Amino acid sequence: MSQHKVVLLLGSNLGEQKKNIELALKKLKDAGNHISQTSEYLMSEPVEFVSSNIFCNIAAIIFTPLSPIQLLDCIKNIEVEMGRINDSKVSGGYTDRVIDIDIIKYNELNFQSERLEIPHKKHLFERDFSRVLLKDFI
Q: Which residues, other chains included, contact 26 with Cβ-Cβ below 8 Å and sequence gap of 6+?
């Protein structure tokens, strides 16, 4: 079975943020993905919406047997299991969230669909906190 190298960003700004991220990483591992490397945690202000809740963020490299869409479905299931209610693609805007997991890169794939864009251009090029987290991962 082929393993694909994927870069993820995880963030949380509700509840016990670091524990939320640790639980999400455990759930990713339990779903058959190998967590190869994680960054340091980084605290950041919300981007593209107003909230008094600060984000805790981390980057991770995983190896997965899943296709990009299978991985997206896995991630969305984890987000829902952990209590995420609003998906920004569905609601059309950002809100506070227990967990957010974004696929930043998947091998060297360029992919675009209604549900998924790889590489994730906003995180790679527009968001300062992302560039800090991803500097050793890209």
A: none
